[in-house]
Amino acid sequence: GAVVSQHPSWVICKSGTSVKIECRSLDFQATTMFWYRQFPKQSLMLMATSNEGSKATYEQGVEKDKFLINHASLTLSTLTVTSAHPEDSSFYICSARGDRDNQPQHFGDGTRLSIL
Amino acid sequence: GESVGLHLPTLSVQEGDNSIINCAYSNSASDYFIWYKQESGKGPQFIIDIRSNMDKRQGQRVTVLLNKTVKHLSLQIAATQPGDSAVYFCAENTGSSYKLIFGSGTRLLVRP
Q1: Of B8, B89, B97, the CB nearest to A41
Q2: Which domains are seen in chain B, by residue range?
């Protein structure tokens, strides 16, 4: 089946630093990638939609200057949390889909981000 | 819309019994639905999907039922096993944006 790899799986860093998370589709070309945020015992909240070669589309309330998304190739998208603060601590999950209609999104295993 | 909740509803079943997890979706224009399973510390795993032109779809040990009249989706798991213990989310897609709206989730606990 479709495999999406996310790296790193866990990161701890000091407040004020920037953190980059990578999302790769390993066995298919991902026309579209999505970034989600998930708090404990809650559902997934879509942050942004990323199409290869174009600017990401952010959901309402998500700061695009805070969460920089790059989708430079059909197999890689990155999310950079800039000047991270403790309130940015969360579980960040990416997903990817191919270019056929009604294909399910396939998810990475998430990145646990802890800001001290 | 997006669901936010501090406490996940929990379904506790005996190993070997059948499980039914329910989901009410929000948009009558949604035309594609997916069930995902999420284990602790992992990303959601695709289980089964269904299009709006279908009422029922079966997979291995799982069946999804769609009732568009009342905007209701259910996931049936036959002969539930300990490995089925996880949080289950339904998700709906509307239109061509391919964005998914996730339900609030249900925790399934399988008693040995």
Answers
A1: B8
A2: 4-111 (2.60.40.10)
Separation between Cα atoms, residue A88 and residue A68, nearest integer Å: 13
Closest in A32, A43, A107 to B43, CB measured = A107
Please tell me the number of Cα atoms within 13 Å of A88 on its side-chain side: 25
Residue-level pLDDT, tens digit, chain A, 116 residues: 678 999 999 999 999 999 999 999 998 888 899 999 999 889 999 999 998 888 899 999 999 999 999 988 889 999 999 999 999 999 999 999 887 766 788 999 999 999 99
Q: Which residues in chain B have Cβ-Cβ distances shorter than 8 Å to A42?
A: 4-6, 104-105
Q: How far apart are CA B15 and CA B82, in angstroms?
A: 7
φ, ψ of residue A101 in degrees (nearest 5): -65, 150
A73: helix, strand or coil = strand
Residues B87 and B104: their CA atoms lie apart, in Å, by 10
